[in-house]
Amino acid sequence: MSDAGELQGPQASDPELRGALRISVVVEGPDATGLLDSQLSQSLQAMEVGGSCWSLVLEPDGHLGDWLRVVRSAAERWVLLGGSGREEALAERMARFRLRERAEISMEPCGVVVSAGVGIDGLGLPALWAVGQEREFLVAPVVLAIAETRESELEAQRIELGRLSPDDVRAGDNPLCIGSANLKRSVSFTKGCYTGQELVARMDARSARAPRRMLLATTMGQIEAGEVLMSDGKEVGEVRTSVDGRTAWCMVARSVTAPSPVAVTCGSHEVTLVEPSGGV
Questions:
Q1: Which of 118, 83, 103, 86 is nearest to 26 (CA)?
Q2: Quick one: which of 78, 100, 105, 269 has the most CB atoms within 10 Å?
């Protein structure tokens, strides 16, 4: 049985659900909201149960710890979904900054799913739907009802649509690399203090650009994550995420414009760089 204050949603047996199992970090208890509000870049106090937002977790020096989807699944229960493989680091980070707060921190399964019957909030990863105590389901950005759809196909469509994911960025990145639109969705510039806020606040006040930022790359060849981008004999970036080998999210130096008047290559293939037109 789920708590009366929890948001109800599609059941795990729903034949229209498609997706993949992920691990989320759950913070719950009387002081969970206060703990997260001191650690995340978003203001959470006024969020209603079932609400969700994007947020940054920053290191004390201001660099990225993680980029999260944050969901209030009950009055004193929050679910955090960041980059795949960073769950333990995120849980350890929350525990490290917990002092006397009455808040329990755990890791639980989370299904990143697609359902033809669930609305989309336009941000790419909308609110979690609580289905009891065992598992949460998160709606993915593309609405499909094809039984054979694989996770890799959903990822390929996400990248092609220009939607950035926490899996595309890394711990230690400059938080402004996600772009101004995503930054505005992820940061409250009116809330009180939180860990690492100085770098973001200073760069925003100066309208500064990140030394490197995420751009979409397309090619007629084949590119893979980890490969280097070159231009005019210099290394200018790297491929972060690619599923089909033709479209990829890349971390690119700010000296390179998009589109670039100088050829940009990855291996023997020329690539075209594009500024994302919006969406996550």
A1: 103
A2: 78
